[in-house]
Amino acid sequence: MENSFHSVRLLEEECKGCTNCIKHCPTEAIRVYQGKARIINELCIDCGECIRVCPNYAKQTIIDELKEIHEYPYTVALLAPSFFGQFPNATVNQVHQGVKDLGFNLVAQVGYGAEHVNFAIRQWMQENPLRPLISSACPTIVRLVQVRFDELVDHVIPLEAPVEITAGLVREQLAKEKGLSDKDVGVFFISPCPAKVSAIKIPIARGQSQITAAISMREVYGAIMSKLATIPKDVVLETDLLASALGMLWGRRGGEVYALEGTRVSVDGVYNVINILEDMAMGKLPEVDYLELQACPGGCVGGPLVTQNPFIAKARLEALCNGLPAAPKWDRDDLLYRYQKGDYFWKLPLQSKAVLSMDGDISTALSMIKQREIIEKELPGLDCGACGSPTCQCLAEDIARGMASNNDCIFHLRQAVQYVAADLWRLAKQVPPTIASQQVLNAMDEEDDNEDK
Amino acid sequence: MLQNKLSYAFPIEASDFTKAGDAAGKIKKILKLAGLPATVIRRVAIIAYEAEMNIVIHSVGGSLSLDLTSTRVEMASQDNGPGIPDIDLALQEGYSTASDEVRALGFGAGMGLPNIRRNADHFCIQSEVGVGTNLEVWIDIGVS
User: Is the terminal CB of chain B with fewer CB neighbours within 10 Å at N or C?
Assistant: First the structure.
């Protein structure tokens, strides 16, 4: 199995080789090489920042298509809370029904699974003293910790994301009530982001996802918009896999920690998250119990595959929650049983992926670091990006790793050309006595004098 | 065999809370490039940050240095005063001489030196009132 699948890809023919994406990549995972912005797979965390900033729409998400639902006898759509904030003046039930009308047999709300995760977090916090805990709900954040903060992997709470939990609960219900086997059920997640797509193809800490495929919110948006007017606002939904306000608010920053105890901090935006993880790695957050970290601005409502302005979507989602029950009717014994059975947990330990090291051998790495510093001193320090690396320091690192050359720096190259030109000029003036023309030499001297002025 | 060694010295200004943490951040980055185990990086980052903050909060200025080989991370901090009158007391958890102003910023909880000692394999501190404080720590990398 391919172990470094990424849903964020480059459309070569659209890429003009500009430097917008390399400058905005939070893990410095993109280089412009031969005029195209290439993604370094080991470093990519599928945050989608490059998708947001590319002026040519050359960064896209590899995602499944809606027509795949025809390949399964029974199909289920999973709706993220953020999805309900995408439609003006629509009720939760209308949106839910609108998706079902696309041809699904069943629709389930991921907020329902989020409520189970909420229970599991509270239980885990009571049983385990390690603090601060890092939320595992946003797959980009989990990958960020694996790639850039591997010293913090133990702090990531080892729980499955709500969408995976919801898929499990759906499959269990269908097996029990309809006798459907796993292979007959296609579970489709309508995703706000590429990271969740990647987490389905290559799950973070489990063998295989229970979700069959992911479809972009953008793909289904138009079809549902056009149906909404024909669906009654109070349409009755034929499922109990529905979210209360508690689960629904997971779609925006602050929803996850709302019902937790202790000192909780919610951070959104991948750069803000990096800052707080840097602080945490230096032991600067002694009083924090739980960190809700979301890569997108505002949380999932700000995902790269949503259609609406994240602030508007957040306001709509909050308004919709006013009409929902505040909390779920939990069967605590059932949830505790599932918790103890391990249903909510990752099936494998979270691996650190220390990809920053310059060499597997520490001694060799030390020489390369030394080399990097010598090279960096020769670079202009302007971080212009014209070499294809995001910063001068990054180029120095690439050169030391043998992935780039000094002359990739246009300042360096320009200087080299100047030296060669000066040499040529000097040689040009040293003509043999037999062919020396005083007239030419005088003209050259005059040129030099002008230059000096 | 001659060991590869990297040496750095970072000057640190007193009371400069804008740059505070920069040296520790640079040290952490170097250790990541060197591919040291995560457990070592965690401990070094905490030590470096606490040592840096001690200079920022308590001293008139000084420096933090790093010497890195494939077997050991050595760090030393030195400052130019005012010095610690009673080191045993300073090593007690919760004891702090930080001003109210500094505490208001969330620092000076009296965990700095104990935290450094807890995370180090070797810990040595010398201080003279009116002269300054020298701290020397190292962490063994544990793989050769």
Answer: N
Please indicate, yes or no, if residue B1 is contained in any of the structural domains.
no
Asked, for residue B90, whether it belongs to a domain, the answer is yes
Residue A229 predicted with pLDDT over 70: yes
DSSP state, residue B29: H
What chain A holds in terms of domains, given with CATH numbers, is: 8-61 (3.30.70.20), 66-341 (no CATH), 362-409 (1.10.15.40), 411-452 (no CATH)
Burial A105-139 (b: 16+ CB within 10 A, else e): bbbbbbbbbbbbbbbbbebbbeeeeebbbbbbbbb
Q: A102 near A66, Cβ under 8 Å?
A: yes
CB A133 within 8 A of CB A289: yes
**Calpha distance B143→B127 (Å, rounded):** 33
Q: From the CB of residue B131, how many other CB atoms can be counted at a distance below 10 Å?
A: 13
Edge-first strand listing for the sheet containing A74-79: A106-109, A74-79, A185-191, A213-216
The burial of B76, by beta-carbon neighbours within 10 Å (0-12 exposed, 13-18 middle, 19 or more buried), is given as middle
User: In the structure encoding, which two tokens stand for residue A422, read together?
Assistant: 């000066």
Tokens of B88: 């045993």
How many Å apart are CA B30 and CA A358, to the nearest integer? 10
Question: Could you tell me how many helices (H) and strands (E) chain B has, helices first?
Answer: 5, 5
Q: Which of A284, A366, A397 lies at the smallest CB-CB distance from B68?
A: A366
For residue B19, give its domain range: 6-140
Vertex A223: Cα angle to A222 and A225 (nearest 5) = 60
A213-216 and A185-191: which strand pairing? parallel
Is B60 part of any domain?
yes
Structure tokens at A235: 């349409």
Our CA-based measurement puts residue A282 at a distance from the nearest CA of chain B, in whole angstroms, of: 5
Phi, psi of B78 (to 5 degrees): -135, 140
Backbone angles phi, psi at A304, to 5 degrees: -65, -15
Test mutation, A147, A276, A284, A371, chain B, max B CBs within 10 A? A284
Q: Please tell me whether residue A189 adopts helix, strand or coil conformation.
A: strand
Q: Based on the structure, what is the number of domains in chain B?
A: 1
Chain B contact for A16, CB < 8 A? no
pLDDT: is A446 or A281 the higher one? A281
Section A410-415 average pLDDT: 93
Mean pLDDT of A230-246: 96
Report how many helices (DSSP H) and strands (DSSP E) chain A contains, helices first: 17, 11
- Mean pLDDT (chain B) is 89
Of B9, B56, B47, which Cα lies nearest the Cα of B28? B47
CATH code of B21's domain: 3.30.565.10
Of B143 and B104, the structure prediction assigns the larger pLDDT to: B104
Residues present in chain B in total: 144
Q: Confirm if A365 and A401 have CB atoms less than 8 A apart.
A: no
CB A81 within 8 A of CB A247: yes
The answer to whether the CB atoms of A352 and B111 lie below 8 A apart is no
Work out the percent of chain B whose per-residue pLDDT is above 70.
90
Q: What does A327-392 look like in DSSP terms, one character per residue?
A: S----HHHHHHHHHHTTTB-SSPPPP-----S-SSHHHHHHHHHHHHHHHHHS------TTSSSSH
CB A27 within 8 A of CB A43: yes
Q: What are the tokens at A375?
A: 């090279």
Mutate to test the interface with A, among B2, B4, B66 (most CBs of A within 10 A): B4
